[in-house]
């Protein structure tokens, strides 16, 4: 069934974007391979991270997550961090003064690194448990205390892997919803399929990728038909994503209306969604969030602002929040 991806409310600029002319390849999208990709990425430490070409983009992404957590998480709450990776949000959970954290990730090495980070937290005021598992193929509920209920479920930059097929998307949503209390929130960040599809459709005939010096997105299975790029399926629409110093593996588009309709079946009602560019325009007007932008070094302060290429890459993503009915 053909779906229309052009349902974004945003008009975005694409400054300095360039076509990806590399040959088209087939990529291994096996979940174990994706897990290995993240397991193999070294935990380089704070000093090395500051030397990254995308340090401003990383800081900006952390700012977005911090704002989401500030808006939707309250002290003494239980949180499920699904797809937690190496624990990049541990300090954010500590600052939010949560009560208990359940962390799960398919990459067992990354999860163990998170556990070690947790054990060395100076402000470790919350308890935590860690589960190495594929949250798109396994259910979290049997692994938890039967009385456990979450106030917030967080999925940061990982939900799109569930859209390999409908079955995985439903398992993911079951994991989000089953232990989430009524009135609780499901928050997250993920690639903005509308932005990506619009951008690749701007490419000339025969070009199925785009990017700049820090990122590239390349599709294998779409095609040109009567001057329009087609083949953007609701599930399993794979592309290869490269972001310098961060990601180099296949991902899947998340068709928004399909996602929102599925979420409704699991009792989740959309509260908001915004592309990162629009999120910045709105949230940065709030004094507390503007101060945080300056404090973490995204804008102002001693260092230069984000480069145009980093800003373009930020537009790949959107932020969202659902409420459990």
Give your account of this protein's structure.
InterPro entries: mRNA_G-N7_MeTrfase_dom, mRNA_G-N7_MeTrfase_euk, RG7MT1, SAM-dependent_MTases_sf. With 325 residues, this protein is of the alpha/beta class. It has one domain (22-191, 249-324): Rossmann fold (3-Layer(aba) Sandwich). 33% of the residues lie in helices and 25% in strands. The strands form three sheets. Strands 4-3-2-5-6-14-13 form a seven-stranded mixed sheet, with helices on both faces. A five-stranded antiparallel sheet has the order 1-7-8-11-12. Helix 5 (108-119) links the parallel strand 3 (100-105) and strand 4 (127-132). Helix 3 packs parallel to helix 11. The longest helix is centred in the first third of the chain and has 18 residues, at 55-72.
H/I helix tally = 11
Main sheet strand line-up:
4-3-2-5-6-14-13
Q: How many discrete structural domains? A: 1
Portion in strands: 15-25%
- The CATH architecture: 3-Layer(aba) Sandwich
Briefly note the CATH topology name: Rossmann fold
CATH superfamily, by name, is Vaccinia Virus protein VP39
Biggest sheet record:
7 strands, mixed
| Poorly predicted tracts of residues | 1-27
Structural class: alpha/beta
| CATH class descriptor | Alpha Beta
Query: How much is the radius of gyration in Å?
Result: 19 Å
> What is the H/E order?
EHHHEHEHEEHEHEEEEEEHEHHHE
Q: Mean pLDDT score, rounded?
A: 87
Give the termini distance in whole angstroms. Answer: 30 Å
The global form is: globular
**How many E strands?**
14
Percent of residues in helices: 25-40%
């Amino acid at each position: 069934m053909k779906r229309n991806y052009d349902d974004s409310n945003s008009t975005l600029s694409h400054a300095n974007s360039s076509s990806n002319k590399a040959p088209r390849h087939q990529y291994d999208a096996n979940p174990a391979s994706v897990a290995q990709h993240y397991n193999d990425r070294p935990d380089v430490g704070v000093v090395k991270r500051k030397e990254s070409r995308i340090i401003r983009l990383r800081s900006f992404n952390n700012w977005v997550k911090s704002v989401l957590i500030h808006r939707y998480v309250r002290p003494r709450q239980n949180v499920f961090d699904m797809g937690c990776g190496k624990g990049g949000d541990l300090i954010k959970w500590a600052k939010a003064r949560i009560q208990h954290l359940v962390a799960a990730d398919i990459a067992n090495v990354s999860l163990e690194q998170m556990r070690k980070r947790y054990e060395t937290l100076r402000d470790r005021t919350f308890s935590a448990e860690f589960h190495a598992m594929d949250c798109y193929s396994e259910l979290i509920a049997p692994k938890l205390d039967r009385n456990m209920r979450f106030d917030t479920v967080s999925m940061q930059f990982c939900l799109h892997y569930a859209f390999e097929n409908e079955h995985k998307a439903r398992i993911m949503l079951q994991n989000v919803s089953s232990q989430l209390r009524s009135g609780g929130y499901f928050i997250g960040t993920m690639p903005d399929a509308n932005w990506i599809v619009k951008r690749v459709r701007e490419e000339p005939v025969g070009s199925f990728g785009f990017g700049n010096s820090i990122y590239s997105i390349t599709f294998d299975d779409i095609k040109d038909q009567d001057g329009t790029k087609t083949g953007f399926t609701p599930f399993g629409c794979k592309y290869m994503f490269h972001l310098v110093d961060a990601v180099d593996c296949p991902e899947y588009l998340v068709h928004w209306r399909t996602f929102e309709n599925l979420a409704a079946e699991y009792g989740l009602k959309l509260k908001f969604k915004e592309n990162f560019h629009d999120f910045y325009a709105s949230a940065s007007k709030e004094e507390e969030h503007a101060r945080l932008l300056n404090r973490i070094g995204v804008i102002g302060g001693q260092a230069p602002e984000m480069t145009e290429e980093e800003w373009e890459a930020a537009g790949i993503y959107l932020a969202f929040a659902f409420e459990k009915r």
